[in-house]
Amino acid sequence: MQAVINTATEPADAPPARARWLTVLWPAFLMAGVLEMLVFALVDPAQLQGWGVDASAWPRPAVYTLAFFIFWLAIGVASAVSLWLATPPRRGRP
Q: Model pTM?
């Protein structure tokens, strides 16, 4: 089954949506892992407190997992905005 591309909304040279998502999510995933290693090399998860949450009652893997997904989300959003800003405008529009 072949995918149908709507050429009225996307430039002919635009990569498919899947490629754009992977362009954003894969580097964000890698950097979230690096950021988590750097943060938790300096911070003990049992001492985290704030926003009405006491993480000392949570198991360490839960804190690591939640922090990883927060880092991935933040870096992914920043990367998606960068990709959006770097994309040339559609043809036929100012």
A: 0.71
